[in-house]
Amino acid sequence: MKKNQILLIVLLSIGCAFNSFAQNDLKFEINKVLPFISIEENKLTEINTLTDLDKRYPISWVREYISVEISAYKNGTKTTASGISDVLNQEQKELIRLADRSSDIAVSVMYIPENSLKNNTAQQYDFELTIMPDENAVYSEGEAQLIQYLQKNCMVNIETGNITGYDLTAIKFTITEQGHISDIQVALPSKDTKIDEMLVAAISKMPAWKPAEFSNGLKVKQNFVLTIGNMDNCMVNLLNIRPME
Using CA atoms, how far apart are residues 21 and 29, in angstroms rounded to an integer? Predict the structure, then answer.
């Protein structure tokens, strides 16, 4: 991972999959985890520039482009398409559109920076783009039933006063390609480990979901997080969340 990417990247981004609900004034949400840089599959045909790939792309840093390489797997084979501008050529756009959905797309930009230095040496800026499926993972029995499940198996088991004020607890989990629950972890622990253990157990016993799926029928993993408590807590930043666009 290159220096510029490290300076700008946030590990994960999360968009709300469901509204916020409350049990005895204790709010809870399930949020969908998104990569920092992502694009929906149905918007691939609209891509024309690097900014279309990454809205935070620092175009103002660049005085002159040396090369712009797009690398992706197509039909299982790693393929690269090159250009010399932030405006993508047809080969680059075609590679992005036809890239295998199971792998990220890598972008590597070599450029001369826009500055007043006498010895202006070439710099490199790299980032990766994840294509998001058209259909996100959903609870098979419906949103209302998911809320009921969480209220019955999680919220009623949290005694009043255990999560108060700015307290926030978060449990991350993954919906597999088969719709099963996996990779459950406590992202933000509560004051009581018994609460965390109860939440992990409840999520692990949750009925199956319908997995996320691309237009070609490919099913993929998708990450979620259950948050309980005050979303104004500054520790929310550790979850690297942002609103769904």
Answer: 6
Q: What span, in angstroms and rounded, lies between the C-alpha atoms of 183 and 149?
A: 20
pLDDT tens digits, residue range 193-207? 999 999 999 999 999
Task: Say how many CA atoms lie within 13 Å of 105 toward its Cβ.
Answer: 28
pLDDT of residue 22: 53
Nearest Cα to 174, choosing from 187, 157, 161, 163? 187
The values of phi and psi at residue 234, to 5°, are -65, -20
| 3-class DSSP assignment, residue 199 | helix
Mention every residue, 6+ apart, whose C-beta is less than 8 A from residue 56. Answer: 8, 37
pLDDT tens sequence across 27-56: 898 888 778 888 989 999 999 999 999 999
Domain boundaries, the chain: 8-36+135-239, 40-132
HEC letters along 212-228: EECCCCCEECEEEEEEE
